[in-house]
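Structure first, sequence second, as always.
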Protein backbone atom coordinates (compact mmCIF):
# COMPACT_ATOMS: atom_id res chain seq x y z
CA UNK A 1 0.00 0.00 0.00
CA UNK A 2 2.45 2.58 -1.17
CA UNK A 3 1.18 5.98 -2.29
CA UNK A 4 2.05 6.76 -5.89
CA UNK A 5 4.98 9.05 -5.96
CA UNK A 6 6.34 11.29 -8.65
CA UNK A 7 9.93 10.20 -9.25
CA UNK A 8 12.26 12.82 -7.90
CA UNK A 9 15.88 13.59 -8.60
CA UNK A 10 18.36 15.98 -7.14
CA UNK A 11 19.91 18.80 -9.11
CA UNK A 12 23.68 18.31 -8.94
CA UNK A 13 24.24 22.06 -8.78
CA UNK A 14 21.76 23.49 -6.26
CA UNK A 15 20.99 20.15 -4.54
CA UNK A 16 17.24 20.66 -4.77
CA UNK A 17 14.96 17.66 -5.11
CA UNK A 18 12.56 18.01 -8.00
CA UNK A 19 10.23 16.01 -10.19
CA UNK A 20 12.21 14.30 -12.92
CA UNK A 21 10.50 16.20 -15.69
CA UNK A 22 11.66 19.48 -14.18
CA UNK A 23 15.26 18.43 -14.63
CA UNK A 24 17.59 18.08 -17.60
CA UNK A 25 19.63 14.89 -17.66
CA UNK A 26 23.29 14.87 -18.55
CA UNK A 27 24.59 11.42 -19.36
CA UNK A 28 27.99 9.79 -19.60
CA UNK A 29 27.59 7.14 -22.25
CA UNK A 30 29.24 3.72 -21.97
CA UNK A 31 31.74 5.10 -24.53
CA UNK A 32 32.63 7.87 -22.09
CA UNK A 33 30.97 10.66 -24.02
CA UNK A 34 29.19 13.30 -21.98
CA UNK A 35 26.08 14.79 -23.50
CA UNK A 36 22.70 16.27 -22.68
CA UNK A 37 19.90 13.73 -22.80
CA UNK A 38 16.51 15.37 -23.17
CA UNK A 39 14.76 12.02 -23.57
CA UNK A 40 16.11 10.87 -20.21
CA UNK A 41 16.48 7.37 -21.62
CA UNK A 42 20.02 7.12 -22.91
CA UNK A 43 22.17 4.42 -21.36
CA UNK A 44 24.93 5.45 -19.03
CA UNK A 45 25.46 7.23 -15.78
CA UNK A 46 23.26 10.29 -15.42
CA UNK A 47 23.37 13.57 -13.57
CA UNK A 48 20.38 15.86 -13.26
CA UNK A 49 20.26 19.60 -13.49
CA UNK A 50 17.43 22.13 -13.24
CA UNK A 51 16.45 23.49 -16.62
CA UNK A 52 18.18 26.74 -15.84
CA UNK A 53 21.41 28.13 -17.22
CA UNK A 54 22.19 29.56 -13.80
CA UNK A 55 22.34 26.03 -12.42
CA UNK A 56 24.55 24.94 -15.27
CA UNK A 57 26.97 27.72 -14.45
CA UNK A 58 26.90 26.70 -10.81
CA UNK A 59 27.64 23.10 -11.76
CA UNK A 60 30.54 24.26 -13.88
CA UNK A 61 31.97 26.35 -11.07
CA UNK A 62 31.63 23.67 -8.43
CA UNK A 63 32.65 20.83 -10.80
CA UNK A 64 29.43 19.07 -9.93
CA UNK A 65 29.54 16.88 -13.04
CA UNK A 66 32.90 15.40 -12.06
CA UNK A 67 31.39 14.30 -8.80
CA UNK A 68 28.08 13.10 -10.19
CA UNK A 69 29.51 11.30 -13.22
CA UNK A 70 32.69 10.16 -11.49
CA UNK A 71 34.88 11.12 -14.39
CA UNK A 72 37.09 14.13 -15.15
CA UNK A 73 35.22 16.73 -17.19
CA UNK A 74 37.44 19.13 -19.11
CA UNK A 75 36.70 22.81 -19.68
CA UNK A 76 36.08 21.96 -23.35
CA UNK A 77 33.32 19.58 -22.42
CA UNK A 78 31.74 22.12 -20.10
CA UNK A 79 31.80 24.71 -22.87
CA UNK A 80 30.20 22.32 -25.33
CA UNK A 81 27.57 21.25 -22.82
CA UNK A 82 26.81 24.84 -21.96
CA UNK A 83 26.21 25.67 -25.63
CA UNK A 84 23.95 22.61 -25.94
CA UNK A 85 22.20 23.47 -22.71
CA UNK A 86 21.26 26.92 -23.97
CA UNK A 87 20.01 25.32 -27.18
CA UNK A 88 17.83 22.70 -25.51
CA UNK A 89 16.52 25.01 -22.82
CA UNK A 90 13.74 26.40 -25.01
CA UNK A 91 12.76 22.97 -26.23
CA UNK A 92 12.82 21.69 -22.67
CA UNK A 93 10.55 24.47 -21.40
CA UNK A 94 8.20 24.01 -24.35
CA UNK A 95 7.92 20.26 -23.70
CA UNK A 96 7.22 20.91 -20.06
CA UNK A 97 4.39 23.29 -20.83
CA UNK A 98 2.92 20.83 -23.30
CA UNK A 99 2.94 18.13 -20.66
CA UNK A 100 1.26 20.42 -18.19
CA UNK A 101 -1.52 21.15 -20.65
CA UNK A 102 -2.21 17.46 -21.05
CA UNK A 103 -2.93 17.01 -17.39
CA UNK A 104 -6.16 18.27 -16.02
CA UNK A 105 -4.65 19.72 -12.88
CA UNK A 106 -6.06 19.60 -9.41
ZN1 LIG B 1 19.51 23.41 -9.73
Amino acid sequence: MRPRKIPQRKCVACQQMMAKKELIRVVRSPQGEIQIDLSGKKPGRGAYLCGKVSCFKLAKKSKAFERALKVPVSADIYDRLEADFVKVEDEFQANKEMTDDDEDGE
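Margin note: The chain has a mean pLDDT of 89.
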